[in-house]
Structure formats: structure tokens, C-alpha cells
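go over this record:
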Amino acid sequence: MTPVEMSIWVVALLVGLALLFDFMNGFHDAANSIATVVSTGVLKPQHAVAMAAFFNFIAILVFQLKVAATVGKGTIDPSIVDHYVIFGALVGAIAWNIITWWGGIPSSSSHALIGGLVGAALAKSGPTALITAGVLKTVAFILVSPLMGFILGSLLMLLFSWLCFRMSPAHVDRWFRRLQLVSASMYSLGHGGNDAQKTIGIIWLLLLTGGYMSTTDSSPPTWVIVSCYVAIGLGTLFGGWRIVKTMGQKITKLKPFGGFCAETGGAMTLFMAGALGIPVSTTHTITGAIVGVGSARRMSSVRWGLAGSIVWAWVLTIPASGLMAAAAWWVGKQIL
């Protein structure tokens, strides 16, 4: 890769913009981590976000940087990347996150970023700029991750219903209030391990492009890794409250038993995706798991109309953020 000439202030601006996106990712996706544990009454909102933020950060000790490598090197051709492409991708993703947060729509920050990268790369170099295998893998998991969450959530609901068949409802509720603390923690751990790495991948790509890192380096600097995990943790701490109600109660009514099954199914999906280096959507995953839990009780307990409108937001995320990123790429050419 031939380094692109860019001043240190441009690099600093783009790193700051990337960390802003990471913060907004945590802010926007806080609902994914805490909606079930708050809506079931197991934790107060302030305690839930503090717990989620803590586990978002300590994911730094658990996960390898496989997702970061996929985002940084496996989505668009690194040779066409410059500061205009990075600027366009980040602005497009941030703009879509703000729009969906304002509307209380649980869309995917992950796919907003991927859409931003694709849109800015297409604006600069056309279809040849895309790494088809990486893009298709990400697009495929728009369907695969909620389906996995749905299946695992449903199976866990059925399994634990069978195991707890002879127990009194009060006894079940008491035990699963405790167990939901574990499942919510594991889900937050998986959330941090997958989502923080997407921003790490962007900054890694930026430093490589600007010649601030060697292509032989196997990982980004420690300050990049730590700052990204801190940013997503702080974003989660502030919490995107507009989306919590949609995720926690509007799709289906949850009790601690169902909340545990949904979070555990979602966490299992995120851990598998992280191990494979696939940048999945935590929003898609937990939504699929919640719908799976509701369906396992009875199909009518799920508000399918709301679930359908959420799916439409998923479908629109990549093209919408891509269009915004293409426009931002043009603006970046004028001002950077």
C-alpha cells in the first residue's frame, strides 16, 4: 500500500470522528444490552448501563482483533482508501445513527459503518473498490444473526421451560432474576467485543493509509484499542433511552425467565461471530432472540407489525448510510 499524504491534523480530526462514532455506537446500542434486564425489573436503568459499560470495556481482555481486521482490510480495497473515504464513511454512519436514534428505531450501527465504507468507496472508485467476499459475508449476516438469535432464544426458552416445569412461578422468577444478571453481562461482553472492534478497524486502516503504521504490523497501537473500548463504554453509560422501550417491551412482554433466554441466545451468537471475525449487528441479534422467546410462548405474543418495520430499517441501513457517505465524501473533498 502506497501511503497517502495527509497532515497530522487531518489524521487527528478523523480519529476524533471515529471515536465519536464509537461513542454513538455505544449510546445507540445501549438498548441492546440493557433493554431486557431493565424491562423485566431486574435492574434499575442506572445500574444496568453501568454494568453494561463495564463489560463493554473488559471485552478488551477477551476477544482477539478478528472483527477489526475484517472491517479494516476485508470490506473495501485498502489501496483506494484515503482521508476523504474515511471521512465520508464516518459521517454517513453517524448521520444514520442520529436519524434512527431520534426515531427510536433499533437499527444497526455496524451496518451503518459498513454502508458508509461501501458508499464512500463507490463514490471514489466504483464497484471495483469493493471486496465482494467481505461485503457479501456482512450482508448475509443481516439474515443469519437474527435467525441464529431467534433459534437459540426459542430453544433455550423451550429447554428451560421443560427443566422448570415442576417449579413454582415464584421460585422460577427468583432464580432467573439472578441468572439474568449473568446473561446481561455476557451479552454486554459480546457487544463490546464485536462493536468496539469496528472502530478499531477504521482507525487501523486510517493509520496504514497515512503511513503512520507499517503494513507488516499485525495489530494497531495499544492506544487505539484502549480508546475505542473506552469510547463505546462511555457511550453505553449515557444510554440511548429512546430505543430501550422498543426493544424491551414493545416487541413482546418479557419476564426474567424470557429475558435470560433472549440475552443468552444473543450472547452465544455474538461470541461465535467474534470468534469467526464477522462484524454482526448486536441490534439484529437481540431482536431475533427476543422475537424467538416471544414465539416460543405463543405466536400472538409478538407484535409482528412492529417487528416487520424494524426489519425494513435493517434493509435500508446499508443503502441509506451509503448514500449519505457518498455525499459526505464529496463534501470532504471540498473542505479537507
Remarks:
- The mean pLDDT is 83.
